[in-house]
Amino acid sequence: MFGGDEKLESIYREVVNRNPGETEFHQAVGEVLSSLPPVLAKHPEFYEYKIIERLCEPDRQIIFRVVWEDDKGRLHINRGFRVQFNNALGPYKGGLRFHPSVYLGVVKFLGFEQVFKNALTGMPIGGAKGGSDFDPHGKSDREVMNFCRRFMTELHQYLGEEIDIPAGDIGVGQREIGYLFGQYKRLTHRFEAGVITGKKLNWGGSQVRTEATGYGLVYFMDEMLRDHKKSFDDMKVTISGSGNVAIYAAEKVTQLGGKVIAMSDSNGVIYDESGIDVETVKRIKEVERKRIKEYTKFHETAAYYEGGNIWEIKTDIALPCATENEITGRDAKILIKNGVIAIGEGANMPTTPEGIKAFMDAGILFGPAKAANAGGVATSALEMIQNSRHDVWTFEYTDKRLKEIMENIYRTCSETAEEYGVPGNLSRGANIAGFLKVATAMIEQGIV
Ligand code: GLU
Fold first, then answer.
1. What atom in ligand 1 is closest to the CA of residue 377?
2. Domains and CATH numbers, the chain
3. Is-contact 343 320, C-beta < 8 A?
4. Strand pairing of 127-132 and 164-167?
5. Distance from the CA of 221 to the CA of which of 174, 179, 245, 399 falls in 20 to 30 A?
6. Residue 279: pLDDT above 90?
7. Is the pLDDT of residue 210 over 90?
């Protein structure tokens, strides 16, 4: 796994031992560390300063109880988390995930990834992540508000526009950000807009933030396709998920001439060879907050497969935009057999190590999450800039900045892969480029 580098091997073993049961965190660490042997051969000082050990141990981990009341007056208890991983490049930055699967191992894997992803954006932001095992699905607005208020009551003392700036992730959208910000404002008596990103446009949010992760993913993939003399034009695209990332990836793919033939949610898959209508998906998911199967009520050419596996559908480009480990080794092999040419990771760590290996061995173009889905957090950083200047930018200008950032990230990953002897391997390129930025800053800032 680590190219025979025994020091690296023993650091990894120590991470596994120190963090028992946190399998997603082990996986994320293993993936980054396996890219590092050529870097460490050039830079022995990273061992001397124990940079890898320091990077694998978060600066601070906050775990708290959240008690909230439902509409019938019953009390519920959830667990809240914030892991402030690394602030070598700027204040801690990263989203909050509200989902029953959230536990410390998930928050740490996401926080660890965020450190390198944020570095790749070129913006001055460190890495963090947080969340709760609270499930907003099926809860009333009032219940979600009660939960968010209690969550922020615990967390607010650790936040600040120059300290730690949360945002959304799975289960946390503009509604939740609104309730969280409202409670922060109430507790601190400050309209500190830059303390949270993903806000509504009318009170400090940024244009394009809603679209940013999905649009950014497609800008990144478009750049990669162009580099290989290809484009989205006339390509069949399958996109897993139907949340914020999937919806705006689908919108941008369609704008660029591609055809989105399938999308999904955790219950099943919708399929329409003639192309999926993104506006209908938006209405079902964003306004009505219903399941994706409703889609077939409005489009009779579409089919719905309860419990179906979207990766079994023949496609040119696959964009996993749902959640971690959703493409297994077996799924990857099916996609390859069916002639897929490119994979773009919109979700965080959606491909298992076996899946990544299968894609690499088959020479499939592969846009790794850290790089390809960095558009969301990059636009959060643009939101922070606007907030700090009390400024508001246009959609066109913000979108242009996002596109430039994604093109830059692609170039950085591609050039770094080339420089370190693995041309075309953007996973390695992303890990190495992100690591170098953070590691160098840590050495420059001394042993803290
Ligand atoms: N949760 C998103 C991510 O995975 C966005 C984080 C942010 O905007 O701070 O990058």
1. 8
2. 6-55 (no CATH), 59-192 (3.40.50.10860), 212-372 (3.40.50.720)
3. yes
4. unpaired
5. 174
6. yes
7. yes
Nearest to 430 by CA among 398, 404, 445, 408: 408
Sign of the CA dihedral running 447, 30, 224, 385: negative
Kindly state the tokens that stand for 424. Answer: 């075309």
| Those residues with Cβ within 8 angstroms of residue 48's Cβ, 6 or more apart along the chain or in another chain | none
Q: Is the CB of 380 under 6 A from ligand 1?
A: yes
Whether the CB-CB separation of 83 and 94 falls below 8 Å is answered with no
Exactly one of 129, 185, 285, 437 is catalytic; which is it? 129
Model confidence at 70, in pLDDT bands (50, 70, 90)?
Answer: very high
Give Cα separations from 356 to 113, 173, 326 (angstroms): 16, 30, 12
5's CB contacts (< 8 A; 6+ apart) are 36, 37, 40
Q: Which amino acid is at 13?
A: R
Task: Identify whether 129 is a catalytic site residue.
Answer: yes
Tell me the two tokens of residue 291.
Answer: 């399941």
pLDDT in tens, 124-134: 999 999 999 99
Closest CA to 55 of 102, 97, 15, 105: 15
